[in-house]
Amino acid sequence: MLKPTSSLLTSWSKTLHLPKSAFPPRAPLPSPYLKRCTDDLYVWQQASRPRENTFVLHDGPPYANGSLHIGHALNKILKDIICRYQVSQGKRVSYIPGWDCHGLPIEIKALQALKLHHDDVSAVDIRKAARELAMTTIEEQKAGFREWGVMGDWDNAYQTMEKGFEMRQLNVFKGMVEKGLVERRRKPVYWSPSSGTALAEAELEYDEAHRSLAAFIRYPIHTASERLRAKGVVGGDDNIGLLIWTTTPWTLPANEAIAVNEELEYVVVEMQQLQLPQVGDLLREQKVLDHQEPSGPQMNEAGDSVGRKTKALVARSRVDYLRSIFGEDKISILAGGITGKADDGQEYHSTLSGTIFGSDIVGTTYWNILQCGHLEDQANSKTREYLSPVIAADFVSSAAGSGLVHLAPGHGMDDYNVCSKLGLPVTAPVDDQGRFTSDVGVSILHGLPVLKEGTTAVLNWLWTRDMPHPGAEPNSAYVLAAHEITHKYPIDWRTKEPIIIRATEQWFADVADLQPRALEAIGSVKFIPDTGRPRLESFVKGRSQWCISRQRAWGVPIPALYRVESESHEAVMNGSTIDHIMKVIEQRGIDAWWTDAEDEPAWIPQGLEGKYVRGKDTMDVWFDSGTSWTLLEDRGLDEPVADVYLEGSDQHRGWFQSSLLTNVATQKASNSAHAPFKTLITHGFTLDQSGRKMSKSLGNVISPSQITDGSLLPPIKRKKQKGQPKYLEPSFDALGADMLRLWVASSDYTTDIVIGTPVLQSVHQSLHKFRVTFKWLLGALSKHDPNQDLTTLQGNSPYTYIDSLALQQLSAASTSVHVHYSAYEFHKGIAVLNKYVNSDLSAFYFETLKDRLYTGSVVERVTAERVLFHIFEELLSMLGPITPLLVQEVWDFTPENVKNEMEDPLRKIWTPFVPSDGLKTNEELANDTPSIAGFSQAEILAKILQSVKSAQEAIRETGGMGSSLECDVHIQPDQEHGEESLRFLVAMEPSLPNFFVVSKVHLYFDTDREVANKKLDASKKEGAKEATITIGNRAACRVLVSRPSGCKCERCWRYLDLKENGLCERCDGVVNEEFPQFLAGVETA
């Protein structure tokens, strides 16, 4: 018999097969693997994959005007994950990054860098500065994108300021001109006084708490319509008026009509002007009034201000609201008659009869108060010039104001649409800077900014006027009330200043003609999320005209020529003139449009008579980026040129819409319409952990670099390395691009995405878990031979039940992740992956495996390693699109013996793992023995395992055990329900100790209950815990966890029957077979 010496006892650890790997605990920064898993991979797949199997993700170009932020990371990494997944599916991916280089944001920033104002710099100098800024920014952003592991054709990235792009854009524009889709009109557009240019709707943001001065204005009736007179409202005096409410008093000088709803009911009310402290003080606060007292309300003997009484038509449904503004006792509905004075001075009395509808008021004329201010001599006025009509409009509602709407067709879209049909003038006496022009007529208004002093000055002029029109009686009231409101108001998306609506001469694309085909094209598009479809459809349906001209220098010129001799500077632009201009641009470059002399004849086509100059307008930047699909025309225009477009939700009214419209505009009418994209994916915006938008003023901005360099989070606590001084411990973990990428992949991008320390800590833990998992797997597989024939080791199926279960779990996880990735649901795939790694691997299979791997026989180790090989290979595939740097690094550390039997995980075609090697399927395993109440064997085992763990924890709390190996498990099936259903446990009895991670498992089958109970009672020791397992409300088995019956093996630490050398039977056999040298120091008893 052999006896161990003391030196032998300390050497058992050398007989263990512990995992060893040089894989580092932290990712190296900067990553030495970046080029190989990005640029090299992109070039390889372009060359190796068939062109006919190409997947195109077309890049929506970011603006080349600033530093990268977390929104850029979300967008670009999502695109890269999609591209990498498609590569893993055997596709040849085409991803050409791009930049939007023109437009106001870049122009403004370039001027700020030069510390110059737009008016002080020539167009040529502006273009030069803007181009240089864009080029510098592109290089900076490109470097950042590439550091995030985004692969693409970076050497051929497109820029909207490149000559080739601009020529393709002009060609699309020419096609639209030739189809009659582009025309010049004077109509209202969004205008930014702070930027001095027209804006598209997509260039607007909204201030939800904008403060405006609103007013109730009374316009005196001049002549009532016949139907109105028939109902007793005579008009022609100063006693009856039309009450309107406006939030833009500065537009009153441009009033051309008042609108009513023909179906609404109206009444005549007698109302009293708000008292002076209520109106006058407010106007003074708003700097409306000068220091002079207005001649409006008069003081009574007590010194109280008395508002004028007057009469007006209002909607009946608005009376209660008006009373809430003016006071309950200040407004009364007149139901009997009206006493007044006619134009000839004779008093009259008229009787009100019948219900007054809006249709009765249509045709009435009124004194246009501010236009009367044009008169220098009111006695000699031409009355007709200062009268305006009441008209009908469907958009007038009873939801706000008085039920009558002031119309200024030069300052409102709806106003323009209804007034232009009636031939009413389009007046807009406001200049590019948002100031009143001399056309406003009232001299004191000239030069005032309409959004500031102009608003208050208009009310001041009305407030202090007694007789603003011929024949008016003294003490007439026109401003009946003024009050401040807080409401939603559009602002310039770059300057953040309020905009106005202003009629100017602009170029428009006729979207109304494109609507039917654009909507048809949307029908065949897949939207992710589904809410994107109605959103895009609503924007297309709600847009009839697209203002495509801008009054800025940095952009692609609208190739129009203007005839100098004509008073209106007639514009000439058709297919032939654009062709000619494009040829000149091809020869001279696009800057020549601005640098050449104004009368340079080279730009004028032969045969065009007269003197012409080039226009100064440039195209809307959404037209620039919207034509970027021309980059992909080699795919053919008879089908979508891109498989995927992916951008933020704001692009439904921006790039998505402009791309759709310009693409549809170029298609043949005889063909069915299609969009330039097959799938349209929308992501939300990034918010801080409190759900707020990130801004510098709030101090809640998180930059991508804070995540990649690890400075945002504290380091993960790790085991201290022996001999390592404290000062060498890292102050933070350098996390690298994979951390940023994993955060993106873990987020549900279809909604707004929260990012903050708690979220990132969870992602950090996941990334760390992946890393340590790979490190353990690399160590466990360091000596594995994937080619070894397992059947030569142990029968036809050497796998244990636990192995089969582990591989089935791997297959289920792999299939689920694959399905989610293919549906662009990356966050769901990562959730499955996290659960699999933490629960199925770390908490279950790896724990059950350690005894076999470290102390088991060759057969036990090799079969376990084969399972780990499949897990290792599949984990690399599942993480390849998400964390390519980690996968590339792991691949570099993969042992050659393993690597030789695998494909490069970033280049292989990945299909979900399907167990083979003679493994039983889930169905076969389930059919071996009956299940209980529909529960599978795996589910039954999980319930027993959970019971065992709970019992162990209870014993541990009392100090009865430490390691889980310090116990035995006893299982007695219920004779009625469990004896047959749990019989599969007998077949797997040898592997049950590893399954439960205990020293020994005792099964009590085929014994009568009394004998079994005695055995269990005999096994009970102090501190043992017992439980009954129920499955589907049926008792399945009795489980007992007790102190072990054996002694601790010095090698595997399990409590079993030992040999005299201190080893269990298995360890003794392994040492004798594999490590006979360790027995050299053994003495014979």
From TrEMBL:
GO terms for biological process: isoleucyl-tRNA aminoacylation; mitochondrial translation. It catalyses: tRNA(Ile) + L-isoleucine + ATP = L-isoleucyl-tRNA(Ile) + AMP + diphosphate. Residues 805-971 form the Methionyl/Valyl/Leucyl/Isoleucyl-tRNA synthetase anticodon-binding domain. It comes from the Eukaryota. It is found in: Mitochondrion. It is an enzyme of class 6 (ligase). Keywords: Aminoacyl-tRNA synthetase, ATP-binding, Ligase, Nucleotide-binding, Protein biosynthesis. InterPro entries: aa-tRNA-synth_I_CS, aa-tRNA-synth_Ia, Anticodon_Ile_BEm, Ile-tRNA-ligase, Ile-tRNA_ligase, M/V/L/I-tRNA-synth_anticd-bd, Rossmann-like_a/b/a_fold, tRNAsynth_Ia_anticodon-bd. GO terms for molecular function: aminoacyl-tRNA deacylase activity; ATP binding; isoleucine-tRNA ligase activity; tRNA binding. Its EC number is 6.1.1.5. Belongs to the class-I aminoacyl-tRNA synthetase family. This is Isoleucine--tRNA ligase, mitochondrial. It comes from Venturia effusa.
